Amino acid sequence: MKKLFFIFTLWLMAYSLHATPLLHNVFNRQAVSLNGKWHYIVDPYENGYYNYRRSAYDTWGPNLNPGVTAYFQNAKARDKSERCEYNFEKAETMTIPSSWSTQEEKLFWYEGVVWFQRNFKHVKKEAHRTYLYFGAVNYEAHVYVNGKKVGIHIGGFTPFNFDITDFLNENGENFVIVKVDNSRKAEAVPTLSTDWWNHGGITREVKLIDVPEVHIKDYRFKLDNKDLNQVLAEIKVNGVNKATAVEVAIPALKWKETINTNAEGFASFTFKNKKLKLWTPEEPHLYEVSLKVGQDQLRDKIGFRSITTRDGQILLNGSPYQLKGISVHEENPIGGRRNYSETDARQIFQWAKDLNANFLRLAHYPHNEYMPRLADELGFLLWEEIPVYWTIQWENPETLANAQQQLSEVIFRDKNRASVIIWSVANETPVSDERTKFLTNLTKTVRTLDDSRLISAAMEVSQHHSSGAKVIDDPFGEVVDIISFNQYHGWYGGDIDDFKDIKWQIKYNKPVIVSEWGGGALAGYHADAETIWSEEFQANLYKKTLEGIDNIPNLAGFTPWVLCDFRSPRRPLADIQDMWNRKGIIGEGGLKKQAFYILSNYYKAKTDNPSQ
Ligand code: GCB
After folding, report:
1. Number of domains within the chain
2. pLDDT per residue over 567-582, tens digit each?
3. Which CATH number covers residue 253?
4. Burial category of 474 from C-beta neighbours within 10 Å (exposed 0-12, middle 13-18, buried 19 and up)
5. Is ligand 1 within 6 A of the CB of residue 429?
6. Gap from CA of 488 to ligand 1 centroid (Å)
């Protein structure tokens, strides 16, 4: 109990010490973009942060000014005799957002610290707060405005913001410096080894947002699982200390109400409407919702749907629903860079549409916000995940706090997205008491923050020693809503011709998703189906897997591994892999492999004849 309390306190501390609690729906707020050219200095020894005794300059306090030595000061030699050993103005530039590995050839393999700097003009507005927002920085960001530290954020795939009002200069001339560190660490989330590229940098958009002192901080609208005519809603207003009126409207429903918050700016309410058009992938109906408090006005487009389970099935709006899925990394096969833009997201959904899919597993970390936003609009269901991958330090309370924070941040960002139906808390983690306790703690975080979605994790399969049956009996299965597992029969062992004869023993009567299956092929390499790495080999693996996959009990769908080839340092085989994981059904350069068409035909047949 004591330990739990300690962990909870750590988590709260992580929250309050690091980024200012997030503003919800930054996406739809008027913002000044700080994307574009930033100067950068590569700093493998952290020379700009520590002195020669390894004492961090930004912990020295006002009386021990590091002078021109600390990079976050953005110093320049003031006269011809002054020694200053860096100069951002003269340093090279890089376009933000980006991953430095794919922006700068010389940084392809680099893992460590890079400092980024840019100037910006911003005139303070009377009775307003200014927030500095980052869509994501991989992995650890120390942010300084005009030479002063505004905060730290840890975790490479979730948004954060700082209230920088009090750091801004009266003359409107400002600079921001970010120390970005993507060194892999054993205690981090993810930990030392993964099967994807450790893309360092300011990898998502940077924005400045002015909001009136009294502003909408957060809100949530969700359909009541128990009454599909009823919406449950909550609002949080910042900057008030008395009951405050918020105007809320959904014009298409001709619904408008003034809601009064309590003295802390919080209100919860419900409304009913028999004519509510529910959101589905086939008809992704979104309602415009508007919120207004004082001078602050914010809009969103929200879909209403329920997602539940019953008797081993997934129910969307109360009816059984089959998922036709594919796993996706946040990487572009054309160039192997990180995806970050609306255009990138539209490309992924176009491919998913060509595949006749209705479900994407966003592996293995939260993807950028364009993905859930467009999924809402275009009609795709999403599985979102945090990078609790393989072997995390299960007994380290800081690691747990870190994972909880990343989970909380993605839930916070996407809680109003109808497309998001599953929170996955882990991938292929080895069964032990400590690990199950860790993951169970994560599910508690989810249930506290969001009781309107399903929980899962990609688990592993074992083989029964005598019968040879494939067994899924992970004790974590007790805790989740959906049993998901990765299996690679025909690739990491097993003869694909035997796939249809496998006996599946799943301990839990819950819906099942096969969260990964597949094999590698080099796009354009043709041979017979026995020849590994050929498109024919991969196509045959897909064909045989699809012939036998319906033998899996309670199968609600699957997400083969993976839509596109992606970069990975674990894949050095020359002339075939060349540092790419080749399990994509779309190859490097965007070329569809044969397996793509096998899966798309299979999904088309399922769509045309769901009972097939
Ligand atoms: C897995 C992992 C995934 C890897 C994949 C592979 O089981 O979950 O991250 O990329 O296998 O290609 O081996």
Report:
1. 3
2. 999 999 999 999 999 9
3. 2.60.40.10
4. buried
5. no
6. 9
Average pLDDT, the chain: 95
Which amino acid does the sequence have at 406? Q
> Does 577 sit in the ligand 1 pocket, CB within 6 Å?
no
For ligand 1, whether the C-beta of 329 sits within 6 Å is no
Does residue 265 sit in the same domain as residue 403? Answer: no
Q: Distance between CA atoms of 213 and 190, rounded to whole angstroms?
A: 37
- With H, G, I as helix, E, B as strand and everything else as coil, classify residue 528: coil
**In degrees to the nearest 10, what's the CA dihedral of 402, 15, 231, 295?**
-140
pLDDT digits (tens, 9 = 90+) for 397-448: 999 999 999 999 999 999 999 999 999 999 999 999 999 999 999 999 999 9
Contact yes or no for 338/332 (Cβ under 8 A): yes
Residue with CA at minimum distance from ligand 1 atom 10: 195
Mutate to test the pocket of ligand 1, among 383, 486, 513 (most ligand atoms within 8 A of CB): 486
Query: Does residue 561 have its Cβ closer than 6 Å to ligand 1?
Result: yes
CATH code (residue 46): 2.60.120.260
> How far away, in angstroms, is 213 Cα from ligand 1 center?
47
Atom of ligand 1 nearest to the CA of 427: 8
Q: State how far Cα 360 lies from the chain centre.
A: 13
